[in-house]
Design a protein that fits this description.
Blueprint: H1 8-22, H2 31-45, H3 50-58, H4 61-71, H5 83-98, E1 103-108, H6 115-126, E2 130-137, H7 140-148, E3 150-152, H8 161-167, E4 168-170, E5 178-181, H9 183-186, E6 189-193, E7 206-211, H10 220-231, E8 234-242, E9 256-257, E10 264-266
Parallel strand pairs: 1-2, 1-7, 2-6, 7-8
Antiparallel strand pairs: 3-5, 4-5, 8-10, 9-10
Length: 267
C-alpha cells in the first residue's frame, strides 16, 4: 500500500462529509489523523490507492458509515466523571422519597462502548431506584462492544470493589484479564444506533439525559442545535448532564444550571 496522500481540497471535502454526517468538526490540523483513518479503511476494503479509496467513499453510502465509525473518537472507562452521576442518583432518590416511587427514564445519548450506561445502571440499582435506559451512539462498532459487555480490567479501575464484585464477572482461563457485566444489569438498557444531528428525537420524554464528552467535537452552531433538540426530549424538571470539559456558555438555550452540581442542568 502506498503513502496516503490527500490534497487540501480532498481534506476539505472529507471534513465537510464528516461534519454533515456526524457534526464532528475536523480542522486542517487533523490532517495526519484523517490520513491514518483512511489507511485503516483502505486495509479493510483492500483498496491500495488513496485516490481510489476516496472515489469509492464518495460513491458508497455504506462505506461512509464505516468511515465515520472509524473517525469517531471513543475514549471511555467506568465511573468517569462520576460526581455528577452521584448527584443525579441522589436527586432521583429524593424525588422518590417525596412522592410515589416511579420508574425513571434515562437516555445516555452518546453511550460509546457502554461504560457510562453500565456505570449509571449499577448506581441506580444500588440506590433501589427503578429505571429504563436508552443508550445510543452513532458508531455501530462501539454499540457492539457495549452489547457484549466485556471489558479489560483496566477499564473498571475506578469502580468500587464492592460494586465490582456484585455486578461484574471476572474472566478465567482464556478470558483472564477481562470482566463481563452481569445480565441483570444489561437487561435494563436498550442500545440503539442514533445520530444526534440528523435522527428524529424519540417521542417519549426522559427524566434524565446524559450527553457527555461528545459535544467537545462539535462547533458552536452544532452544539446549540444538539442541546436544544435534547431539551425537547426532557420532561419538565428533568436533568441534562454534560461532560466536565463542555459548556453551555454562549449558546441560546433554556436550561438552568443546578447549583452545587457539576455539569448538570435542569429543564
Amino acid at each position: 500500500m502506498g503513502t496516503i496522500d490527500i490534497s487540501n481540497k480532498e481534506f476539505n471535502t472529507l471534513s465537510h462529509l464528516i461534519y454533515e454526517e456526524s457534526g464532528i468538526n475536523i480542522h486542517i490540523g487533523k490532517m495526519e489523523l484523517l490520513k491514518s483513518k483512511i489507511a485503516k479503511r483502505m486495509r479493510s476494503t483492500k483498496i491500495s490507492s488513496s485516490r481510489d479509496y476516496l472515489n469509492y467513499l464518495m460513491n458508497n453510502k455504506a462505506e461512509v458509515i464505516e468511515f465515520i465509525d472509524t473517525v469517531t473518537t471513543n475514549h471511555s472507562f467506568f465511573f468517569r466523571e462520576n460526581a455528577s452521576i452521584q448527584k443525579m442518583v441522589q436527586a432521583l432518590s429524593l424525588a422518590n422519597a417525596q412522592s410515589t416511587p416511579k420508574t425513571f427514564k434515562i437516555w445516555c445519548a452518546a453511550s460509546s462502548t457502554g461504560d457510562e450506561p453500565y456505570s449509571v445502571a449499577v448506581q441506580m440499582i444500588e440506590a433501589s431506584l427503578q429505571f429504563k435506559m436508552l443508550a445510543t451512539d452513532i458508531s455501530h462498532s462501539v454499540l457492539n462492544t457495549a452489547m457484549r459487555g466485556v471489558y479489560s480490567q483496566e477499564r473498571v479501575r475506578n469502580v468500587p470493589v464492592a460494586i465490582l464484585h456484585k455486578y461484574f464477572q471476572k474472566g478465567l482461563g482464556k478470558s483472564a484479564g477481562l470482566i463481563r457485566v452481569k445480565k441483570e444489569i444489561m437487561r435494563h438498557i436498550d442500545f440503539q444506533k442514533f445520530n444526534l444531528i440528523t435522527d428524529p428525537i424519540p417521542d417519549e420524554k426522559f427524566d434524565v439525559i446524559l450527553c457527555r464528552n461528545v459535544m467537545i467535537y462539535f462547533d458552536e452552531p452544532t452544539t446549540e442545535k444538539v442541546v436544544n433538540r435534547l431539551y425537547n426530549a426532557l420532561k419538565i424538571g428533568g436533568f441534562f448532564i454534560i461532560g466536565q470539559a463542555e459548556s453551555l456558555m454562549n449558546l441560546k438555550h433554556h436550561f438552568k444550571a443546578v447549583k452545587n452540581t457539576p455539569s448538570t442542568f435542569q429543564k
